[in-house]
Write a structure and sequence with these properties.
The protein has helices at residues 2-37, 51-54, 59-62, 81-98, 124-132, 173-185, 223-233, 252-281, 283-306, 312-341, 346-378, 381-414, 421-424; strands at 64-71, 105-109, 113-119, 137-140, 146-149, 153-161, 164-171, 192-195, 198-201, 213-217, 242-250. The protein is an alpha+beta fold and 425 residues long. The chain has three domains: 2-55 and 251-424, Multidrug efflux transporter AcrB transmembrane domain (Multidrug efflux transporter AcrB transmembrane fold), CATH 1.20.1640.10; 64-134 and 241-249, Alpha-Beta Plaits (2-Layer Sandwich); 137-233, Gyrase A, domain 2, CATH 3.30.1360. Helix 4 packs across helix 7 (223-233), helix 8 packs antiparallel against helix 9 and helix 10 (312-341) runs antiparallel to helix 11. The chain is elongated and about 95 Å long.
């Protein structure tokens, strides 16, 4: 009776493992289908874009224009250079956004440079015109009458006094006369400040402002709001003088061709790796192949969910992550083979194989993660794209190797296949 119950329990365990493996395979296949084709388009079903549309492509894959500027450092602006450089970057971003280039990326590069990347643009001169054309700043009274323009503003900067943030400004001599007359005529009323036709502030005039200097106050204004308002007021001209160092236009056709070639190379490499793992490790190799498919799907999901731009070097980072995922499985399976050949049971060999390989896997991945974080912090452009993709790839590969491969291999062991040739190759 006890033997019969034992056999029945083993049979039930094999059945559960077989069903679980089938469910896992179906879920992976369904996820891959949704990732490639998207899901849902009706009013009652939320639409999920296919990963080809959901993942943001970098300039080298999508095509567009990039340019690099160097901001001039002088003895006069040295003390506030960092603040002025941030202001210059923000003004450039605002100018591009106001012209419809909402996907433009404006990033600081090094200590004194600004890199601008704009997808889907082929004419570099169009960008130069936008960057070089000052924004139109106007001061108007409540009736809409023009008081003065941005050329009359000499300086605007965030200020902190009496426990509150504000914006201090200084006008030219002509602007000081205009503003003095305007504030005298509009006591208790608002004077609106408009940038390219949009109101960015409408402070109330509390006193006549003479001498060309004044304060714009607003209840509850934060440091960030004060900084942004100051930069917008001064955006009639860039806070720092900039010099163009380089510019390049990348054809969208070349970008698509590069992506297609990279994907083809990755597909061929992936298939060869999967065949090798299957030949070398048999059932554990099949587990590694399933974990590799899950790894690729996880990386694609994280790229789409985080909004990280995929660049051509980023594709290389993903392929490198594939190599690390396979390497982790090789370490695990070699330790497993050693334990199994030494006479341990299948389940004990799986446990010892993972335990013995775990430290080496974690050490190797942690060092790569540190390198990727350094590149994220100090890299720019395509280097940063590679770093983000590598970081996502390494974390995903470590998760699939340590968690997914172990769970799948235990399910395979529960199937009751005991012939050594299916494990040792």
């Amino acid at each position: 009776m006890a033997r019969r119950n034992s056999m029945r329990g083993a049979s039930n365990a094999r059945l559960r493992s077989a069903i679980t493996l089938c469910v896992v395979v179906l879920l992976v296949a369904a996820t891959a289908f949704v990732a490639l084709n998207g899901f849902g388009r009706g009013a009652m079903v939320r639409y999920m874009k296919p990963w080809g549309e959901a993942i943001s492509l970098g300039l080298d894959l999508r095509g567009g224009v990039y340019t690099v500027y160097r901001a001039t450092r002088t003895a006069e602006n040295a003390s506030e250079y960092d603040r002025l450089l941030e202001g210059t970057k923000r003004v450039m971003q605002d100018r591009l956004a106001s012209k419809g280039f909402t996907e433009a990326t404006v990033a600081r590069q090094g200590d004194d440079r600004i890199r601008i990347e704009i997808p889907d643009v082929q004419d570099p001169n169009e960008i130069l015109d936008i960057i070089g054309t000052p924004a139109h700043l106007e001061f108007k009274d409540e009736a809409g009458n023009l008081i003065m323009e941005g050329k009359d503003v000499e300086l605007a900067a965030p200020d902190y006094r009496a426990g509150a943030y504000a914006v201090a400004f200084r006008l030219t001599s002509e602007g000081a006369d205009l503003f003095a007359r305007a504030t005298a005529a509009n006591l208790g009323r608002t004077i609106s400040i408009e940038l390219d036709g949009q109101v960015i502030s409408a402070p109330v005039v509390n006193s006549v402002i003479t001498g060309g200097s004044g304060i714009i106050e607003s209840q509850g204004m934060t440091a960030e709001e004060a900084t942004n308002l100051a930069m917008l007021i001064q955006s009639g001209a860039l806070p720092l003088q900039v010099e163009q160092l380089e510019m390049s236009a990348i054809s969208a056709t070349l970008g698509v061709e590069a992506l297609d070639r990279a994907l083809l190379a990755g597909l061929i490499g992936g298939i060869l790796i999967m065949l090798f793992m299957l030949w070398r490790y048999r059932l554990p190799g099949l587990v590694a192949d399933m974990a590799l498919v899950i790894y690729v799907l996880l990386v694609m999901f994280l790229l789409a969910a985080t909004g990280v731009q995929l660049t051509l070097p980023g594709v290389a980072g993903i392929v490198l992550g594939v190599g690390m995922a396979v390497d982790a499985n090789v370490l695990i399976f070699e330790r497993f083979r050693e334990e199994y050949k030494g006479g341990r049971s299948l389940r004990a060999s799986v446990k010892m194989g993972f335990n013995r390989a775990l430290r080496a896997i974690i050490d190797a991945n942690i060092t790569t993660i540190i390198a990727a974080l350094v590149l994220v912090q100090f890299g720019t452009g395509s280097i940063q794209g590679f770093a983000y993709a590598l970081l996502i790839s390494v974390v995903s590969s470590m998760l699939t190797a340590v968690v997914v491969s172990r769970a799948l291999l235990n399910l395979v062991v529960d199937l009751g296949i005991k012939d050594a040739k299916y494990y040792l190759g």
